[in-house]
Design a protein that fits this description.
61% helix; Alpha-Beta Plaits; 4 domains; alpha/beta; Rossmann fold
């Protein structure tokens, strides 16, 4: 290990000599590399000599030791500084602690005190070096495993929506940039099967995967904004964020090349283009659904989700995702968010109204039927939710907008009614909780869990309701109830402190006195005396 470099700065040459000659530098693993008589000279050579520790006097001609220390730490925050100070400068020296000086030594200089300060500095340096080594080792591990982390993150966003800003930041961290001009994404999923029966299936599957992946990476090597990963079932996923490259033509050419070079059969599902990184999962799910049609299309086929002729009644993948989110908003009574989601669905439909995959009457019927069922389950009159239920006409964009207006109104009314019912229920819960707390205030174990258990709800739910409806946490409200009762007992009775504590559920006399002083600013006796004095004054004035 290299010796720790020490610099001594003091305008008195004898003190510099004393420090240099009295300390066993070899035993400390240190070496005095320079001495200076003033701060200016030391600062001039600071960067070149790069000291680890500086011992400096606080009072020198020109710049003082505190200013000098501050300048040194601005240049190198890791330098350790020890201040030498006299008794008359002690209060001033304490200010140096605020700027990061690790220790100060009083004059006259004592060998033991200097050695202890140096040892303290050495320990700090050693600990910092260990932290740096650990950090460098971790950074090395991260760098070595970056491709794995990148792939794991890409797989994650296939299955759950991501925040676009976080996606862009993480991709940059993982060494891949996103398109600065567009957030459009399109996903294709490649499923390969071996034709060779001579090898073990598992071994052959891995070999085929590696060969195909290498071909794909080489194929897109000259193009930016293409991301490749392997999903949870071993299929190769390509995410395209490049609007310039013709993605579908590229996939068709890529299939030809793979089939020429690898002995396998291929099926490729292609999702539709989406307008945001957070919709990668929708394009992926569409590609998977398209891939399920390989039993119809056969081997070595590319199936495009947008060209599928849907005959069964269901929503598109993206519509389904928005509708699932909308249902949560409705059932939570979040009217504004539910209505926003319906408008998002309307916008999506109008953008894609020419595509067979988006048949509005399926959407209309599913949403209206769901709203009616949920209303009926809650005893809400269905006529309050849906004034009418039409049969969808075709071909009219104006009628499509009208049907979305019906859906919007139904969702708004249902979420409003659910919100109203929830508020009534929550009011009842809060009233019952407060009553139970008041009736059982003398119980020391009257915690949020016991109240929630009595009400058959979770403690977390009770805590949120109290904060929302009463503006206080459970503990704050309970403390206020106890304080009000304690004040009343002090005013109206002659009960002793421990008896009052038992009445309000605080049986520890010491804690009771501390708690009451915190709540009122007075001790129990002071509070009682103050109230008695007020009564006397009232009688005198009468």
């Amino acid at each position: 290990m290299n010796k720790i470099k020490v610099v001594i700065v003091d305008d008195e040459i004898l003190i510099r000599k004393l420090i240099r000659m009295k300390i066993n530098w070899e035993a400390l693993g240190m070496n005095v590399i320079a001495e200076f008589s003033n701060a200016q000279a030391a600062l001039a050579e600071f960067d070149e000599i790069a000291p680890d520790i500086i011992i400096t006097d606080i009072c020198m001609p020109g710049e003082d030791g505190i200013y000098f220390a501050d300048q040194c730490m601005k240049r190198n925050p890791d330098v350790r500084i020890i201040i030498l100070t006299g008794y008359d400068e002690f209060e001033y020296a304490l200010q140096s602690i605020k700027i990061g000086v690790i220790d100060y030594v009083l004059k006259p200089v004592n060998e033991k005190n200097i050695s202890n300060a140096l040892l303290k500095a050495k320990n700090l340096i050693t600990e910092e070096n260990i932290r740096k080594a650990e950090k460098e080792d971790l950074q090395k591990q991260v760098s070595e495993n970056l491709p794995l982390f990148r792939e794991n993150y890409l797989v994650q966003v296939l299955y759950e929506s991501c925040d676009p800003k976080i996606f862009a930041r993480k991709m940059k961290y993982y060494g891949l940039n996103v398109n600065p001009d567009s957030e459009s994404v399109q996903v294709s999923v490649i499923q390969a099967e071996t034709k060779c029966s001579k090898c073990d299936y598992e071994d052959n599957e891995v070999i085929i995967y590696l060969k195909i992946r290498r071909i794909i990476e080489e194929f897109f090597s000259g193009d930016q904004y293409f991301y490749i990963c392997r999903d949870n079932l071993g299929r190769i996923v390509i995410v395209c964020n490049n609007a310039v490259v013709p993605f579908q033509d590229s996939i068709e050419l890529l299939m030809e090349i793979i089939l020429q070079q690898v002995e396998c059969s291929l099926s490729i599902g292609v999702g539709t283009k989406k307008d945001g990184f957070h919709k990668i999962m929708y394009s992926y799910k569409e590609a998977i659904e398209a891939l399920s049609y390989k039993i119809v299309e056969g081997d070595n086929s590319i199936i495009y989700y947008e060209y599928l002729d849907y005959t069964r009644e269901h929503l598109s993948i993206e519509m389904e995702g928005i509708w699932e989110k909308t249902k949560i908003f409705i059932l939570s009574g979040l009217k504004e968010k539910a209505c926003e989601s319906i408008l998002e669905m309307k916008s999506l439909y109008l953008e894609n109204s020419n595509k067979k995959a988006l048949k509005l009457h399926y959407l209309y019927l599913e949403i209206l039927e769901w709203c009616i069922e949920e209303a009926a389950d809650r005893g809400i009159g269905t006529d309050q939710i849906c004034g009418r239920r039409g049969v969808l006409a075709t071909g009219s964009m104006e009628k499509s907008r009208n049907y979305f207006d019906d859906i919007y109104e139904a969702v708004k009314k249902l979420s409003f009614e659910i919100s109203k019912m929830a508020e009534l229920k929550n009011d009842t819960i809060i009233k019952e909780a407060v009553r139970y707390m008041y009736d059982n205030i003398s119980h020391p174990e009257l915690n949020m869990g016991s109240v929630a258990k009595h009400l058959f709800i979770s403690p977390g739910h009770l805590g949120r309701l109290m904060k929302k409806n009463l503006g206080k946490t459970y503990c704050e409200y309970l403390s206020n109830l106890r304080f009000e009762k304690a004040q009343r007992l002090l005013r109206e009775t002659d009960m002793k402190a421990y008896e009052i504590g038992e009445e309000i559920g605080i049986i520890d006399p010491h804690y009771l006195s501390i708690w009451f002083k915190k709540m009122s600013g007075l001790s129990l006796n002071e509070f009682r005396k103050q109230r008695q004095d007020e009564k006397v004054n009232d009688r005198v004035s009468d």
